Amino acid sequence: MSGKNILYAQSGGVTPVINATACGVIETARAETEVGNVLAAKDGILGVLDEQLIDTSAMTTQQVAGLRHTPGGIFGSCRYKLKSIEDSRAEYERLIEVFKAHNIGHFFYNGGGDSADTAYKVSQIGEQLGFPVQCIGIPKTIDNDLPITDVCPGFPSVAKYVAVSIMEASLDVMSMASSSTKVFILEVMGRHAGWIAAAGGLAARNAGEAPQIILFPEVAFDLQAFLQRVDNVVKQSGYCSIVVSEGVRDAGGKFLSDSGVRDAFGHAQLGGVAPVVANLIKAELGHKCHWAVSDYLQRSARHIASRVDVEQAYAVGKAAVEFTAAGKTGVMPIIERLSDDPYQWQIAEAELGKLANIEKTVPASFISEDGFHITDACRGYLSPLIQGEDYPPYGSDGLPQYVTVKHKMAPPKLDSWCE
Amino acid sequence: MSGKNILYAQSGGVTPVINATACGVIETARAETEVGNVLAAKDGILGVLDEQLIDTSAMTTQQVAGLRHTPGGIFGSCRYKLKSIEDSRAEYERLIEVFKAHNIGHFFYNGGGDSADTAYKVSQIGEQLGFPVQCIGIPKTIDNDLPITDVCPGFPSVAKYVAVSIMEASLDVMSMASSSTKVFILEVMGRHAGWIAAAGGLAARNAGEAPQIILFPEVAFDLQAFLQRVDNVVKQSGYCSIVVSEGVRDAGGKFLSDSGVRDAFGHAQLGGVAPVVANLIKAELGHKCHWAVSDYLQRSARHIASRVDVEQAYAVGKAAVEFTAAGKTGVMPIIERLSDDPYQWQIAEAELGKLANIEKTVPASFISEDGFHITDACRGYLSPLIQGEDYPPYGSDGLPQYVTVKHKMAPPKLDSWCE
């Protein structure tokens, strides 16, 4: 091992496979002579500011390997967005100070669009302050809303969870419908992009199969058209299964369920649109409804991860090390699709400046004309992503053997920092 | 094949493995010379009254085998409880009329306590009307609330789903807690019995691990004690993970979330206690919470079924045929535990009259003194039940290959019936 150290940080909401990316980073760095040790920020960028750095060299080979099948964020993540360099110059200078103190030459920020933006700004400030750092963004977001890349690691596993779950729950409500529950509603994540909701559509392998209705944030909610559709489906099939995105809004742009709370990024904190939809159906059509809100379950369900996703998540971590060892900076390893069937892909690269702050929503060509389902084109895009299973090992107690690590912290070298 | 036909009916809420029981019934009956064909009631007992009977002899060997890994109720179920013989004599007489018309000598009712009660009454009325039918109850209920049997088929798979899910979601909230969500709440089923909530406790393999709090219907909800506990856990661990039963009630017996709706059995229709708990924590302690309601997902999640459960569900179906072939009636095949470690069990039998209308709740010895967790005794009981995985086969599209069947109906022989 030679060269400067890598600093790896996880950002934003975690995924079933973000640790597989960490695994790819650490395993590749350990075998790579051009880079030094991997330090990991405790709780994302906040851990860099606080100089809370985890020394991953203390992790055993088995612990690192176990990250590949462990959900959550093993080093902790955070919801904290650095503002512009002008507004937050002290924070950016602190980052560089910490980098200097720990001989960091490579900064890997593993997150979504906000994180790509931060990594891009850090690469700029390093140059300005005369301490150039190679900054690599590593893609991760269950929302699948990054541009350029074919897919964002994390999304395919959530997609698989949602497709499997709605397929199973639909068999349940179908069994019960003659004398009891006629409508089942599953609420899924996706604030502005309906990719996760769209994935529910994969369970309907043939026309008319459940779920019969998908509500996208990209389509303004039309109450009368929706009720009419539910009524028709129940009359035709005896039951109706619905996937609703948390981000569904009416024609005026108001979230169907706006709790008024906002997260640290300033986004509205949603949750609970499923009961709203259930109450509408109950009140207007009189059907008994059941509803589920999968919330964190969907983005931590490593037990039903997509094998494609695990492989891609590992690959982008590996590529980050290879990119930086090759002298690259200001870029992100992305997934490039070579063919749909069989699904073939390779790692490519994109400039961070072109990725930041652009949300890729579900295109109109992927949503059926009536706005309630996915098209064949969408199916062609999504289907390969959920292929293959990658089960975690289970213990004799019937539970997954997820890795837990008592982290060794790198001794701090600077005074503590308060902005 | 000789002898009279079997009539098999599914009752009440379905489970991930009730079709494995159907598989056990049909496969065993096909090999058994003492019984005739298996007819299956469409939508439970309602299908018997309506003479909607499915001829399972039309199902291929592969379709029947596929039931072992298919969730939902393949023949349909219902929520409909026959009243006393005095109050509903016409219904009971209709059942016997349908039995006569289709040469039914064996009636298998696959359900919980209500269904055991119905099977018991049918065995009595058959005697009274001079058309004796061998009535076998087959246990099925995710609530695990039947007496005598060690466990109810269906429960172990839900237990495994809940334990795995809360383990995964807890890794998620732990990752996010430093700057965002500090509390995660998972709502699970269990109207009067907290077995499913208790199963969440299995994820806490060591003291202090998540979930740190379990709210049982057996323990009156004490708001101040609860808030104090949440506060302590967050201060100590940085985050708090909670499993709450839908049936949690305050000291006055009022459900924490009572929507006022009642199901066909007259039970309060619950759902949505998780957001109530989240709002309490947010308002009193100020912590950001996330919550999930697993609803039907938990009881249809065949993808993470317990192998023990699948084997037991199949075994009780097989035993029902063997019991009836041996001339038994008015009984239920149950699970008898022979040892905890290794878990060993065998099929035993119980009289239906002793099973009906008794709800086995979680005993005090299984709940920790403070009322917020499970004891070692509870762990010793529950842990063997979730052992082993039994994954369904997946197609090349990444989705489970669950069986669907276009049923062949037995031609009706009677006039249609309206009570």
What does this structure look like?
- 2 copies of one chain form a homodimer.
- Chain A has 13 helices and 11 strands.
- Chain A is of the alpha/beta class and 419 residues long.
- In chain A, strands 3-2-1-4-5 form a 5-stranded mixed β-sheet, sandwiched between helices.
- In chain A, α1 packs parallel to α11.
- The longest helix of chain A is centred in the middle third of the chain and has 22 residues, at 155-176.
- Chain A is elongated.
- The two termini of chain A are 35 Å apart.
- Chains A and B meet through α6, β9 and α10 of A and α6, β9 and α10 of B.
What is the correct CATH architecture of the largest domain in chain A? 3-Layer(aba) Sandwich
The top-level CATH class of the largest domain in chain A is Alpha Beta
Helix content of chain A: 25-40%
Q: Describe the global form of chain A.
A: elongated
Q: Which strand-content bin applies to the residues of chain A?
A: 15-25%
How many β-strand stretches of chain A? 11
**Strand/helix succession of chain A:** EHEHEHHEHEHEHEHEHEHHEEHH
Summarize the structure.
The first copy, chain A, folds into 2 domains: 5-140 and 303-357, Rossmann fold; 155-302, Phosphofructokinase domain (Rossmann fold), CATH 3.40.50.460.
List the helices and strands and how they pair.
The structure is a homodimer of 419-residue chains.
Chain A: E1 5-10, H1 18-31, E2 38-41, H2 45-49, E3 53-55, H3 61-66, H4 89-101, E4 104-111, H5 113-128, E5 134-139, H6 155-176, E6 183-188, H7 195-200, E7 213-215, H8 223-237, E8 240-245, H9 273-285, E9 289-293, H10 295-300, H11 307-325, E10 331-339, E11 344-351, H12 352-355, H13 376-382
Parallel strand pairs in A: 1-2, 1-4, 4-5, 6-8, 6-9, 7-8
Antiparallel strand pairs in A: 2-3, 10-11
Helix pairs in contact in A: 1-11
